[in-house]
Amino acid sequence: MIRVAVVLPEKAGDRAWDYAIPDDMVGRIGPGARVKVPIRSRSVIGTVVDVKEEEANRELRAIQEVIGETPLILPKLLEIARWIADYYCCPIEAAMTCVLPQAVRSGDVSAKLVRHLKILRDFSADELEAIAKRAPRQAEVLGILLDESEAVPASEIMSRSGASDAVIRTMARNGWIEISSVPVGRDPYGSESFLPTTDILFNDSQRVAYEAIEEAMLAPAEARPILVHGVTGSGKTEVYLQSIRKALELGKTALVLVPEISLTPQTVERFKARFAERQGEVAVLHSHLSQGERRDEWHKIHSGKACIVIGARSAVFAPLANLGVIIVDEEHETSYKQEEAPRYHARDIAVLRARLEPCAIVLGSATPSLESWHNAQTGKYRLSVMPQRVDDRRMPILRVLDLRRVGAGGDSLLAPALTLAIESRLEKGEQVILFLNRRGFSTSLQCNACGAVCQCPNCSVALTYHRDAGSLACHICGHTQRAPKKCPACADPGIRFSGTGTQKVEDAVRRLFSKARIARMDADSMGKKNSYRETLEAFRRAEIDILIGTQMIAKGLDFPNVTLVGIVNADLGLHVPDFRAGERTFQLLTQVSGRAGRGEVEGEVFVQTFTPFSPSIQFARQHDYEGFAEQELEFRSSFGFPPFRRMVLITLRSQSIERAEFCAITLARKLKIELPEGAICGECAPAPLAKAKTYHRFQVALRGPSGRALARHVRKTLAALPMPEDVFVAVDVDPVGLL
Ligand code: ADP
Ligand code: ZN
């Protein structure tokens, strides 16, 4: 018997080779390890994807070298990586980077080293006294170190004793103390302290939800995933917190996924504060961590030091052992779907992982995705409803302003009724949020005379106008140029920006409410690292009266003094070419209205729209999720859209429009041969985003009852269809965006 590693060379597509493991490498090689192996006359680097025992019936070449010390991947995560490669049609190597992030696998990011001091010998009382007379600082340092059995960070000793660097070095030369470099974990929250909070007594629906989760934790193998449908402010987070507490009591660990956008300091603080006594055991994973911080957090989890992990999408792969519960908050959020290969959905991976572990899984939302809602309706998930806000505060009143009738008072963008309402709230010293729907939203530069719009030269989209910089930018490819002074088509100097940018709303609001303190928050104004947080803090301290923003401010923020929320343009989400547009609009209106009236005073929400009778707006107005879901599911069912059918979207792109189209047509033709049962394949069509970053884009969409069967069919067909070198194919299984 010999041990064989199956190695997948980097950049070699999907094929793996077998290699013998030399005796001296046994124990250092497991799945995930990076190794150097011979292929023909070359040596290449690859990743071990499997280790097996085999009869020595054939000659295998041996692994040449193990690169770095790679921590071994948990077997369940490896299984997930394989599943991802299979289901989402990506190379196993790409799937492996999910479970073993770059920061962990490359040897170049190492632990941070910090100078530590340790005492080397004993000192008698009279010896110390003599030193104190001659060199009081040195005696001070010795005094501190004599009380410590471990090495202490030098910076701490220096600030406590007042000793300088020179003093420390003299003492080391004397042979009294030892200076060493100790690797320490970087803790992004290390400098903060959290006031501990205690569990709150549950109300009835909280208790019911909690008990379902507890039951699932005690018997995870038999439990179904739990969908918690709770309105904003119904106390879901409190249920999560106490469920985590229970998991810890059972000696298990907990994983909490939140959308990147709501992974705010406020959210993290809430978890850290509840488990203040175990602060060092809470790991946070988000995209703003440096490589070093990411590596440290990963090792903290992998080594078993962390028992709670909070993070965005990729945290679903956190190497936690012994999981008790996984919580996916705001499970409907599209940011759980990765938009580049591997195009996995973190919520779906979480459900899969919970089944493999097994552990309890909780999906929570005020507006569940129709996929999850459908699963609850069919009994695949267990539903727990939390219909009321905590302490029975009423949902805010939603007023729909029909822009076709009222007009948005000239240039002000705000209907008179909304302007009046803001005025009266400000008079009472209350706060206001004005919200702009950014999706499909244009701040483009359009000529009033001829209608020409400034377009990106590389992409089929209008450029966005940035007034502060006087420039035009493309949000797809990043192209920028100076804003023209006259229309590039007809040379009319009256070219002005159409659409309603946050900047323009800000100007209008400043004109209307000259005494109010106003702040704007969007991706453009929030360039500086901390200004997001600073603006929110200032708003919380009531130093800002009106906050204007995009999606960024719609989520997870809790401001008791906000009594009015205005949605300046509710419809724009309805006009994007996506069968989920109605669902998105409903979600958005519900989330945004959740911001109003979280305190003592009842809140109100104004929705400005050109389509006041669209179902998304009407159901949102009634706070009727179930009604909305029912009619939306009917629509999905009759057109054969998800969740009734699975979908695979294939996008081909090339700088040559002819080759992109030709390949897409050929692919569609081949896909139609031997389709899986019940599946259909559409015709090739230009993508809604027909050109991006100088690439022309064409799409082929498949639908069918089984995602796996579709994926298998697509993989097989693509493997048998060689593509020209300049045509790139992206396969998106269960896409959430269709652009
Ligand atoms: P959600 O996550 O559903 O939006 P939260 O858990 O944030 O709701 O609860 C909203 C507010 O109500 C929080 O300030 C929370 O501390 C408080 N809260 C939660 N549960 C209770 C309860 N049973 N009694 C009183 N207050 C509660
Ligand atoms: Zn562009």
List keywords for this structure.
about 750 residues, alpha/beta, 7-stranded parallel β-sheet, 6-stranded parallel β-sheet, about 30% helix, binds adenosine-5'-diphosphate, binds zinc ion
Structure description:
With 739 residues, the protein is of the alpha/beta class. It is 32% helix and 23% strand. The chain is built from 22 helices and 31 strands. It has a seven-stranded parallel beta sheet with strand order 11-12-10-13-14-9-15, with helices on both faces. Strands 16-26-25-17-24-23 form a six-stranded parallel beta sheet, sandwiched between helices. α4 (125-134) packs antiparallel against α5. The longest helix has 15 residues, at 204-218. The radius of gyration is 30 Å and the shape is globular. It starts with a strand and ends in a 6-residue tail after the last strand. The model has no long low-confidence stretch (mean pLDDT 85).
Entry summary:
With 739 residues, the protein is α/β, with parallel strands linked by helices. It contains 22 helices and 31 strands.
Report, as a whole number of angstroms, the end-to-end distance: 52 Å
Strand elements, count: 31
Instruction: Return Rg in Å.
Output: 30 Å
Distinct ligands: adenosine-5'-diphosphate, zinc ion
Q: pLDDT average, as an integer?
A: 85
